[in-house]
Input
Amino acid sequence: MTGPCVVYVIDDDSSVRAALDDLLASVGIRVLTFDSTTAFLAHGMEDAPGCLVLDVRMPGQSGIDFHRRMAGLGIALPVVFITGHGDITMGVDAIKHGAIEFLTKPFNDQTLLDAIQNGIGKDRDRRRAVAESEMVRARWASLSAGEQEVARLVVQGLLNKQIASVLDVSEITVKVRRAQAMRKMDARTLPDLVRLTGKLDLDGLS
Amino acid sequence: MTGPCVVYVIDDDSSVRAALDDLLASVGIRVLTFDSTTAFLAHGMEDAPGCLVLDVRMPGQSGIDFHRRMAGLGIALPVVFITGHGDITMGVDAIKHGAIEFLTKPFNDQTLLDAIQNGIGKDRDRRRAVAESEMVRARWASLSAGEQEVARLVVQGLLNKQIASVLDVSEITVKVRRAQAMRKMDARTLPDLVRLTGKLDLDGLS
DNA sequence: GCCGAAAATATACCAAAGTATAATATTTCT
DNA sequence: AGAAATATTATACTTTGGTATATTTTCGGC
Output
């Protein structure tokens, strides 16, 4: 495997949990099983790329309901549904809401493994993107208000002279803030700064 | 409606075609119906945002097969499937391959209309993005080889002096090419050029 | 080989950007 | 209020970027 990863299995049927535990352990993937969404939430998530195998139909909160609430709970884990009794609309809607797969029992073991690997890969990519975005965001937050203003106008293509006029400060102040912004953003060149701020959506951050 | 648009309906059942024709005409959407994918291909597509309503099961090429071949045929139209006899896997796979909806008869008229409007909106967005990308690409193609080289290095953050050294030309030549590149790309400032070329993937274009 | 067009280069100049030092103003904390 | 920290501004200088004009070079076609 390329690095550590975890598969969370939520199914009320203990025989299913045991079977999936065996299957995944046999290919060397770390597995955590739960008999309900509540139990999963109580345990929490590990800090590693992962994938959630979710039973559609369960006592208490159904897998479908849980899937819908995941975003609100801040859980971005890719989901692979498994079910004994599903209908077309349910499967279609699940995929439309972003699920990786919707498998009906009995399903082929390899099909499930492929879906899980796919999900783990997607989660790995997502985590990388989030980490990068967070780093840029943290750097941006380290700029003073004045430095952010200058940086924003610099990236818009204004000259130092124009920025000084817009902000009603001296051109020297603009140069100081600009240099400071470059240092804090860890941008060696102006194109670097443009690319970094491009990941920020400066309109939304003012 | 926000601008012109077309809905293509492909279904071998003439009563379905007539019903959809009525339904869509009643809300003021232009409709073209076909009894097979072949007939649709023979007619060709209009130059307007659109959506394809596709029967899953047809004599000759099935809707599912056609959907898979659309990318290869250069058809990016959003697809809404309708079917009388489908199974979960078929619906799930269709959505996974990018279909907007997978509806089983009998379906609610409003559900279909919503899906179609959704598809048209997506196609409109896609067409806009493609048009913008094409414009940038055309501008880039208007640069001479030397101008492209200079522009690429400029965007990487190199100084004119460094670019001259890398390309083994004089710094004055770099300045001329650089100015010419800015003019041809219609970039008023360096940040503009960075953003424009960012849409190009310069690695792939050499 | 000669010619015309396009590209490259040289020269000269000005505006803009980057940097360092120091002085002044402002804010913040005690 | 007073002191320390921070921000702003001024001055001076260097490097870089942008532009215009003129000259030279290069290259394809006749």
Q: What stands out?
A: The first strand of chain A starts at residue 6 and ends at 10. The mean pLDDT of chain A is 94. Residues 109-141 of chain A form the longest helix (33 residues). Residues 144, 146, 169-173, 176-177 of chain A lie near DNA strand D (CB under 10 Å from a C1').
